[in-house]
Amino acid sequence: MTQKSGFVILLGPPGSGKGTQAKLLSDRHQGSQPWIHISTGDLFRKEIASGSQLGKTLQGILASGQLVSDDQTNDVFHSQVKVILNKNPACVLLLDGYPRTAVQAKFLRNLANSIPVLKEGIVVELRVPEDSLVERLTNRLVNPRTGGIYHKIFNPPKKPGICDVDGGPLIQRDDDKEETVRKRFAVYSMQRDAILEALKGLRHSIIEGTGAQADVCAKLEAEIAAI
Ligand code: AP5
Ligand code: MG
């Protein structure tokens, strides 16, 4: 494949595997034009862990399953893009959980137009039925230090509750309770069409996210290689 630069919007409901796949893909593409994972959810959780005033406000929003404001999200996203492009002037940005509203989608398109390396962009949507999402998220374990993702049944750590990579404890996310998962799913479903409308003109493909992680990864890789 000839490597090209650009951005890939990993669109999909909570639990569809955006974070899992972004991690697999970024691990597999670390060359001179790396594929780099940006998760606004992870950025917000880092801010919460820092104990800052902003983190305290964000904590309540995330725990309730609501969205952070567009202005705050766009600021955080833009700062992160600048840091990444400064270090990696040519790369593929894997966008996990951004954009999540039409306003964010328009912000992204304006930003991409002003940054030559980001001119090419595609949308890859992961589709998973709601009941599977609930099953996945209520059994998810995460490493809060690295963002590593496990599932108690489908992708269990070697030692229960302990990360295979750094040997530290795994936790359950505050927003992975069934009621909050269903709320997040409803929020996603409400925004999806408007996001896609704002992204009109970008190539949009839908991938079934229900197979084995490696199979989903191979399908995504093929889509992204065709940027
Ligand atoms: P965020 O952290 O982005 O959460 P989310 O969209 O709800 O998505 P998840 O992380 O829950 O799911 P995922 O698709 O990454 O799935 P995963 O790979 O972990 O956002 C959290 C909150 O932050 C939002 O609610 C909002 O408040 C705020 N926020 C973030 N971005 C924002 C924005 N742009 N604007 C405003 N607010 C924003 O997989 C899930 C589980 O399934 C894991 O256990 C995994 O092991 C398992 N799994 C994965 N693939 C498979 C498979 N193929 N088969 C079986 N199991 C699998
Ligand atoms: Mg995630």
Task: Provide a descriptive summary of the structure in words.
Strand 5 (140-142) and strand 6 form a beta hairpin. The chain is built from eight helices and seven strands, in the order βαβαααβαβαββαβα. It is of the alpha/beta class. It is globular, with a radius of gyration of 17 Å. The mean pLDDT is 95. Helix 4 (70-87) runs parallel beside helix 5 (102-114), helix 5 (102-114) packs across helix 7 (178-198) and helix 6 packs across helix 7 (178-198). Helix content is 47%, strand content 15%. The strands form two sheets. It has a five-stranded parallel β-sheet with strand order 2-3-1-4-7, sandwiched between helices. It has helices at 18-28, 40-49, 53-64, 70-87, 102-114, 130-138, 178-198, 213-225, and strands spanning 6-11, 35-39, 92-96, 121-127, 140-142, 149-151, 203-208. The structure holds BIS(adenosine)-5'-pentaphosphate and magnesium ion (MG). Residues 18-19, 39, 41, 96 line the site of magnesium ion (MG).
Structural key phrases:
227 residues, alpha/beta, five-stranded parallel beta sheet, two-stranded antiparallel ribbon, 8 helices, globular, binds BIS(adenosine)-5'-pentaphosphate, binds magnesium ion
Kindly state the mean pLDDT as a whole number?
A: 95
Shape: globular
Ligands in the structure?
A: BIS(adenosine)-5'-pentaphosphate, magnesium ion
**Alpha-carbon Rg, integer:** 17 Å
Total beta strand runs: 7
Major sheet summary line: 5 strands, parallel
* Separate helix tally: 8
Order of helices and strands: EHEHHHEHEHEEHEH
Please give the alpha-carbon distance between the first and last residues.
10 Å
Helical percentage: 40-55%
